[in-house]
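Next up, sample data:
>
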Amino acid sequence: MAKLVLSFNGDVVKEYELDKELLTIGRKSNNDIHIDDLAVSNTHAEILTILNDSFIEDLDSTNGTFVNGNKITKHALHNGESIIIGKHELKYIDASAENGESDFEKTMIIRPDTEGKTETQEDDKDSEESIGKIAADLASASSVTSGPGPAKLKLVSGANAGKELKLTKILTTLGNPGVQVAAITRRPTGYFLIVVDAGKDKKMPLVNETEIDKQQQLTDADVIEVAGVKMSFNLL
């Protein structure tokens, strides 16, 4: 299990195991990782963990979030990286990576609004790395063999309206980097829509015309909207 090691002026303050899907970081005491520092916003950033991979997102903080000296909005964390929030440092430690178990691979972003385009994007590396890390771990997870039955997406708007896509993979990504990117994952308990990148406008994908949170389980006949394109989700 990965963890974050909080330190101040080189002295370790506390260690936090990433043992739940979402952890918040901020100055308010109700955050999962509480940093009592005036340079830290009330709710400064959050950590999303899916299986063995973690992603940090800045929550429009006043002074920003930095990874290895670079200001980020959303970033897929690598073992040993240093996160600076205010005057404190959080070091990301991933035991599985130290043991050589982590494996990165790129995956495809399906752009259902563009005729004939199913391609790897190069213009948004944060989204691409996030998707690649999710895909790599899901592909190696043995539990998916006991997951739900097959499903499909049917496009109901855009250039390819009427076309269907069978969800044969463990993870299918949808959208346009920089605009909006989401992923449909197949888990033992069902299919889930996960937000990968809310884009510059910070707008979440829609399910049945309602914005989702970080993720939502899908049910038969749900209508999904990602990057302005609508599609229906159907179990086969």
The radius of gyration is 18 Å. The CA atoms of residues 118 and 214 lie 24 Å apart. The first helix runs from residue 95 to 98. Residues 100-110, 112-124, 127-145 have pLDDT under 50 and may be disordered.
